[in-house]
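[RESIDUES AND BACKBONE]
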Amino acid sequence: MNIALIAHDSKKKLMQNFCIAYRSILSHHTLYATGTTGRLIEEATGLTLHKFLAGHIGGEEQAGAMIEQNQIDLVIFFRDPNIHGLNHGVDINKVIRLCDLHSVPLATNIGCAEMLLKSLERGDLEWREMYR
C-alpha cells in the first residue's frame, strides 16, 4: 500500500515518534512524505521514503495529485488545528477534501492513525487494492 505522511511543524516530533513506534508495520509499505517530514522520519527510523517538496512550497499539492490519481491508499496528516494562515488552510483542506472524494482513509490525529495502521496490519484495508 502507498501511505502519505504529512505533519505541520508543531506535529513533526509526534510524527517521528509515531513512525518509530509503528516502524515494523510501515516498513512493509511504500511511504511518501512532504520534504522535511520525510527527512526527519528517515533520520529517526531508517525507513526509506519518497519525498515531495516541503509542504508549504508544494508538497501538499504533490500529495494531493497522487490522491487524485488514486495512487495513495492511506494518508496520515498530523495537522495543527491552530494554524489559521490562509496559505496553509487551502492546502490542508484540499488534501482532506480529496481523501473524501476518492475514499482514501485519512487520519489527522494519533488515535485515528494508530487504528488505521493496526487495521492495515490485519488486512482490513485490502479493499483499497480492488478500489484502485
Summary: The chain has one domain: 2-22+37-73+87-131. The first strand starts at residue 2 and ends at 7.
